[in-house]
Design a protein that fits this description.
CATH superfamily of the largest domain in chain A: ATPase, nucleotide binding domain
Structural class of chain B: alpha/beta
Order of helices and strands of chain B: HHEHEHHHEHEHHHHEHEHHEHEH
Number of domains of chain A: 2
Number of domains of chain B: 1
Strand content of chain B: 5-15%
Distance between the termini of chain A: 34 Å
Structural class of chain A: alpha/beta
Mean pLDDT of chain B: 89
Low-confidence stretches of chain B: none
Largest interface: A-B, 18 and 15 residues
Helix content of chain B: 40-55%
Number of helices of chain B: 16
Helix content of chain A: 40-55%
Order of helices and strands of chain A: EHHEEEHEEHEEEHHHHEHH
Number of helices of chain A: 10
Shape of chain B: globular
Oligomer: heterodimer
Radius of gyration of chain B: 21 Å
CATH architecture of the largest domain in chain A: 2-Layer Sandwich
Strand order of the largest sheet of chain A: 1-4-3-2-5-6
């Protein structure tokens, strides 16, 4: 996808970012996202993470530069993020690895100036991040990685049990009129709970809605810990799941901020912003 | 033990990390390499010594036990270390064979499993002070059935506001327990002057470590977090080799003193480490690689506390135990940590506890809350004692925390 920067972020941010050709590569546990900032435009690409993080990253970069009509060599700086960042290497192009926590904060800040709280639900963990609304710096964060509950993998497993594609699970939940009570939030135990709800004749819609609410409750626990304000941005691979957005809004009691750029790309966008900043530092040194 | 350094990303076991730290990260420092060698060889050395007929007793490896046993001509082998570089089977064995619940402290399980696996080849005498924790009590009761001679020393805590009579009773009880321990370990061999000599030596070692702390403040990245933590862990048992340990400290002081101003001063954030001593060594690697430097340490090995060498040596042991800085409420400890952090300009603290440690996991949360109220960023980590690499999420947390502090530091400098 191609966007004019001024269409998706504030003009002063767009001007600040238009000084370099910078890429952000976010290799998550399930999805790999790439963002290229070049000449006033922003390019995005999304694919499955695959087995080799490095190969996937190079594929993403190729796609991005082709879309922008430039060569890989013309990219000034690349920042890698996500769990796969440690395996990345782009030869002579300056590269740095930055954690996804820092990148999501930066990305959300530029997408929605003044963001204070981020919910990031990815494939293998979920996070609540508190952000300094002045500059997008992280001020506090907490991660749930102790079990798959509250993560994309949990939803993936439930989708399988309900014979749904992952994309359909959220939409299915939105059609529910009477969400099921899900007591267990462990993937293993939830499986038997979902099976028993199915056996009792509870509809797919109600089970799906119940599962989303159970996940949202888990995430709310994280939010409580860091503290949260009304201006919440939802990022990560699960953020495009409308069923999850609704469940979070129900549990939290306030609405999730809508951003012009798909917030699935918040991490990759933050990485690209970080790459612009890093490139600026290099210029100063030279 | 095969010793071959791998690249940072290939490091799988705790031993891999120590070897990597020695051969790759600390090529520039002979003294740091010596510390890591002492650590690698510690348990094997105790094993060899035992097989050669020397006296070895498993102990906590802390100041009082170690000094006492050295004075009796016995090498103190720290039981918390048997599991640190242990085999991958130890925890599984504790859970499956001894049926220790999965939720129990990972350190205790790993030690229990390792004591079982190594029975017959290592020293079979074990001295334990009831001060540590209940899961260890249970583990050592279990291991008694497999050829171990276990002596438990029953101790008490000295409440700050107790009456003098109560404190005197506690002291008397403590003293009697030490005398019983001596009778168990080495009947008739106690020599007060030898113990006093050990206490003087211990104090001297702590002063040298404090000198290293002070010098590190000028060159924070000269010695990484992992060897610093290992150096501290040996502050009382000296890895079984007191003179070699002291010589290593002297060499490190010399190396640090020879550095030019500004050398190894490229840290992005100064940190405090508080809680357990950590088994997941790539956490330390992650701190260093992200530009963090741990200058303030709040772990069981406290170097500020010294023995009173002017009084009867057994009374000095008792006083030392009762005045232990690690005891007391979380809030008291937090106040002490904040003071120490201020000394080194540390801007954030990592709280670390072992999975299943019911005391520490709550304690670090209380401390985290206290620090939050005082606007000091804290990161709580619950770690495992299993052999193997830690998950990417744990290192991500650590890196993100250092990134956060580094940015805050940069912004405050700009402001």
């Amino acid at each position: 996808m191609k966007y004019k920067l001024t269409d998706i972020i504030d003009d002063d941010f767009a001007a600040e970012l238009s000084v370099a050709s910078a890429a952000g590569i976010d290799i998550g546990s399930r999805g790999a996202k790439g963002v290229l900032i070049n000449n006033g435009y922003l390019y995005t690409v999304l694919t499955a993470s695959g087995v080799s993080s490095d190969e996937t990253a190079h594929e993403l970069l190729e796609t991005l530069v082709n879309e922008a009509g430039i060569s890989v060599k013309e990219v000034d700086f690349i920042v890698g993020t996500g769990y796969g960042r440690v395996a990345l290497n782009f030869g002579t192009i300056p590269f740095k690895g930055v954690t996804e926590i820092t990148c999501h904060a930066l990305g959300a800040h530029y997408m929605n100036r003044g963001t204070r709280t981020i919910i990031d639900i990815g494939g293998q963990d979920s996070k609540a991040i508190q952000v300094d609304p002045e500059n997008g710096n992280v001020t506090e964060f907490i991660m749930n990685d102790k079990c798959a509950a509250g993560t994309g993998r949990f939803l993936e497993k439930v989708a399988q049990l309900l014979n749904l594609d992952l994309d359909e699970l959220g939409k299915c939940a939105l059609r529910s009129e009477n969400p099921a009570e899900i007591s267990s939030q462990c993937v293993v135990f939830a499986e038997s709970e979902v099976i028993s709800l199915k056996a009792k004749g509870v509809s797919k819609e109600d089970i799906a809605a119940g599962i989303h609410l159970a996940t949202a409750r888990r995430v709310k626990g994280l939010l409580r810990r860091v503290g949260f304000d009304n201006d919440i941005v939802f990022t990560g691979g699960v953020s495009h799941n409308q069923g999850m957005v609704k469940a979070l809004e129900t549990e939290i009691g306030s609405s999730i901020t809508k951003t012009k750029l798909d917030s699935t790309f918040a991490g990759a966008f933050g990485a690209a912003i970080s790459a612009v900043h890093e490139n600026k530092n290099i210029q100063y040194v030279i | 033990m095969a010793e071959q350094s791998k690249s940072s990303t290939e490091n799988k076991t705790q031993l891999d990390h120590v070897i990597y730290s020695r051969d790759v990260v600390h090529k520039h420092s002979k003294a740091t390499q010596n510390i890591l060698n002492l650590c690698i060889d510690y348990i094997d050395y105790c094993k060899r010594a035992f097989q050669e007929g020397k006296e070895v007793i498993w102990t906590s490896g802390m100041g009082t036990d170690s000094s006492l046993f050295y004075s009796l001509g016995i090498i103190p082998a720290s039981f918390t270390e048997i599991g640190r570089l242990c085999s991958a089977d130890a925890v599984v064995l504790a859970e499956d064979f001894f049926q220790v619940p999965n939720e129990t402290c990972a350190m205790v399980k790993s030690d229990l499993g390792e004591f079982y696996l190594q029975r017959g080849t290592i020293a079979n005498r074990l001295f334990y002070s009831s001060k540590a924790c209940e899961p260890y009590n249970v583990a050592f009761q279990l291991i008694e059935d497999y050829g171990y001679d276990v002596h438990v020393m029953d101790v008490g805590f000295g409440p700050k506001k107790a009456s003098q009579e109560r404190i005197d009773n506690i002291k008397k009880h403590y003293r009697d327990e030490y005398i019983k321990a001596i009778e168990w370990a080495a009947p008739g061999r106690y020599d007060p002057e030898k113990l006093r000599t050990e206490l003087v030596f211990y104090n001297k070692i702590q002063r040298k470590i404090r000198t290293i702390f002070n010098l590190r403040a000028y060159h924070p990245t000269y010695i990484g977090s992992l060897p610093m933590m290992l150096l501290l862990m040996g502050n009382a048992h000296y890895f079984g080799k007191p003179l070699e340990y002291e010589a290593t400290l002297d060499r490190l002081i010399e190396e640090l003193s020879d550095l030019k101003p500004g050398e190894y001063h490229d840290e992005k954030a100064i940190l405090c480490w508080s809680g357990a001593r950590g088994q997941e060594f790539n956490i330390f690697e992650a701190i260093d690689e992200a530009g963090g430097a741990v200058l303030s340490w709040n772990i069981p090995n406290n170097t500020v506390h010294e023995f009173n060498t002017e009084i009867d040596p057994i009374d000095a042991l008792v006083e030392f135990e009762l005045g232990d800085l690690i005891s007391g409420t979380s809030e008291n400890a937090s106040r002490y940590i904040i003071k120490d952090m201020e000394k080194y300009n540390a801007t954030g603290v990592i709280f670390y506890a072992y999975l299943g440690c019911s005391f520490a996991t709550i304690d670090i949360e209380l401390k985290r809350k206290y620090f939050k109220e005082h606007n000091i960023p804290g990161l709580s980590l619950i770690g495992s004692f299993d052999v193997g690499a830690v998950t990417g999420q744990v290192t991500t947390r650590v890196r993100a925390f250092v990134e956060m502090l580094a940015k805050q530091h940069k912004e405050s400098k700009t402001a």
